Amino acid sequence: MNNISAAIVHKLRSHLEQERTIERKLESFSQKLWPWSEKKLFKLVILLAVLDYLSTYAFLTFGNSPQVIEGGLLAGWALRTGGFFKLFLVDTACIGALTLLAFCTRSACSRLGFRGLGRATFVVLLIPYFVVIMAVVYNNLFWALI
To answer: Which of 13, 73, 74, 133 is buried most deeply by CB count within 10 Å?
Structure first.
């Protein structure tokens, strides 16, 4: 019986060490993807979300073309059914859900002892939105000012 439990403990320790190796690689990848702090990424995501809303308002209100529409499916639906206030609520809910997911996964991984994996999931969840929303804000401001 002791041999069996010792073998199981040894196997669990070796699996945990393998996970630690993968975790270090993921943390290194996340550091290359986003070398700054997680707090800075969160603040920039929120700032870009606000700029997205304001630039969408400017683009649709002050744009010269009458055929200008919102390109996003959810945002377009919100604008058609409730105007800019509903768009604000939908944007807030979506950003809130995304950031809540990022913070919860980071927290869960950290509690399990995988801080590197927590950082990697946080960065991997927020970076795609960050990149896309930068392009959207630029596009909105470009077309609103032309």
So the answer is: 133
Q: Find, among 136, 119, 135, 140, the residue nearest to 33 by Cα.
A: 119
| DSSP tag of 53 | H
- Structurally, the chain folds into a number of domains equal to 1
Q: Which helix (H) or strand (E) holds 1?
A: none
Segment 4-60, tens digit of pLDDT: 777 776 776 676 676 777 888 889 999 999 999 999 999 999 999 999 999 888 888
113 conformational bin, left if phi > 0, alpha if psi -120 to 50, beta if neither: left
Taking the C-alpha atoms of residue 5 and residue 8, their distance in angstroms, rounded to an integer, is 5
Residue type, 126: L
- Structural domain span for residue 88: 2-145
pTM score, whole prediction: 0.81
How far is it, in rounded angstroms, from Cα 83 to Cα 73?
Answer: 14
